[in-house]
Amino acid sequence: MFGVVFPNRSFPMDITSFSQIDTFHWILDMNTFVGEAYDQVREMCIFLLNGFQLPADKALAVYIQSPGSAFFFCGAVTVARPSAVLALPWPEPGGQLQLTADAAPLSAKIGVSVEDLATLPSLDVTAEKRIERLAMKLVVPMDILDRWFKKFQERAKRDPEYLKGFAL
Fold first, then answer.
1. Is this model's pTM higher than 0.90 or not?
2. I want to staple 86 with a disulfide (CB 3.0 to 4.6 A). Which of 75, 110, 132, 155 is the partner?
3. Can you tell me the distance from the alpha carbon of 16 to that of 78, in angstroms, rounded to the nearest whole number?
4. Distances 39 to 7, 23, 97 between C-alpha atoms, Å
5. Residue range 29-76, pLDDT digits in tens
6. 3-class SS string, 31-77
7. What residue ranges of the chain have pLDDT lower than 70?
8. Please, which contacts does 94-100 make with residues 24 or more away whose CB atoms are closer than 8 Å?
9. Do residues 1 and 52 make contact, with C-beta atoms less than 8 angstroms apart?
């Protein structure tokens, strides 16, 4: 059905590495994979395996969950986009971390589920690229920063009291 790779961390893993919750939901317990260092895993590649037929109106959605927090959507793959490298911006652990003596410790998880494509946030990579290009237009050219810094240094040399205004 699907496979995943954690760049610089794992060999390809297939669906058997995940615990199947029901027909359409799988969970990877990060404690068994990396222990408590789950937040060091920053990205994941997910891909549909050859021969798997996902309906055109469905997607494999990827979610992450820090201990005690809610699941957070990271992205998805579809028949039209059969693989993706997804950032894993782990949320801060939630406030439900108090455990009783007989409770199992909470762990970070990666969830994968089959969902209706229409219910997911936009997977429009073209729109993301347009936003990135717009952001690049807002970047200040380096020579402007260099000129400002030179003026700053010159003023600091002329007036030693000037820098005292920046002391914390």
1. no
2. 75
3. 20
4. 14, 28, 17
5. 998 888 778 889 999 999 999 878 889 999 999 999 999 889 999 999
6. HHHHHHHHHHCCEEEEEECCCCCCCCCEEEEEEEECCCCCCEEEEEE
7. 95-105, 123-132, 134-139, 166-168
8. 94/66, 94/67, 94/68, 94/69, 94/70, 95/68, 96/68, 97/67, 97/68
9. yes
